Amino acid sequence: MNDVRRLATALSALLLLPLPLSAEVRLIMVEQPGCAYCMAWDDEIGPVYPKTAEGDFAPLQRAQLRDGPPEGVTYDRRVNFTPTFILVDDGTEVARLEGYPGEHFFWPVLSEMLAENTAFAERNTERSR
Length: 129
Description:
Elements: H1 2-16, E1 25-31, H2 36-44, H3 53-57, E2 60-64, E3 84-89, E4 92-98, H4 103-117, H5 120-128
Parallel strand pairs: 1-2
Antiparallel strand pairs: 1-3, 3-4
Organism: Roseivivax lentus
InterPro entries: Thioredoxin-like_sf
Protein name: Regulatory protein SoxS
């Protein structure tokens, strides 16, 4: 009888744990050596990105243009420009931003990509309650 109670308690505890809203959302930055816009992103956004809600929800993964997609990732189409930011969910591309014209453009577009293609908005609404 004690074993049954322990099992029931353990299962109840598991049900109370928050479930992830998305199995694996990542932002892949496709870059190449000598890319001036990649370097600008690195200077302006790179240091703060992992500290933001966006960076927490969609961690950055870097990929080289010539290497193709990272293992387990599928792009919808070929990448021609660097930087290209590809939002992936469970290894599948769900949105893309080509180029980097500056931080004032990057953040709103990234927020829109996340809101329209992932559970990012739901997660942040729950956190603010």
